[in-house]
Amino acid sequence: MNRSTKQLIKNITTFHIPEIKHKLQFDGCSKGNPGLSGSGAVIYEHDKEIWSDSLFVGNNETNNFAEYVGLIMGLKKAYELNIKHLFVEGDSLLVIKQMKGEYKVSSEKLLKKYTIAKNYESKFDSVYYNHIYRKYNTRADELANIAIDEQKIYMKNLRDEFWYHPQDFSPFPPLGNPPLGNPPLENPPLGKVEPK
Known about the structure:
Largest sheet: 5 strands, mixed
Order of helices and strands: HEEEHEHHEH
CATH class of one domain: Alpha Beta
Distance between the termini: 103 Å
CATH topology of one domain: Nucleotidyltransferase, domain 5
CATH superfamily of one domain: Ribonuclease H-like superfamily/Ribonuclease H
Radius of gyration: 26 Å
Structural class: alpha/beta
Helix content: 25-40%
CATH architecture of one domain: 2-Layer Sandwich
Shape: globular
Strand order of the largest sheet: 3-2-1-4-5
Number of helices: 5
Number of strands: 5
């Protein structure tokens, strides 16, 4: 091994990311892939949670789409919190590699989300990405699942309400007394009515 190769190896092994006090972890999940999808994101300051949120993404979205939504949620909030340097972790190898420029974004739908995420990324002084295993991303994973669970509860309650009070969900006005001011015509005209 020549001297320049040894120096290169030394530089690579000693490279480290500067200590950053803010960390974003994000996650997305899809039950069915595509299916019911949710996203979650959490921001830590020196390992203390300072913000978290979850969002129901849709009834028929992919896991990768939900992952990007989680990332965007977190980047947006970090920007709103005026964070300048951010360490980002996620368990989606695809999203992390795409954000680092190591994988190409081939899906048109994901490309739109990728572009939004890159736009937010450009607002920071520095952003570092790191892939982690799911077992180290439990809070964001929990938030993504909460979004789906809450949507399921909402839909169940909506169905139950419809079952017990179907008239409240009719697109047509209820039968019975007509609204005041416009009594119905006893013999409505047929065809075209000529103005007087």
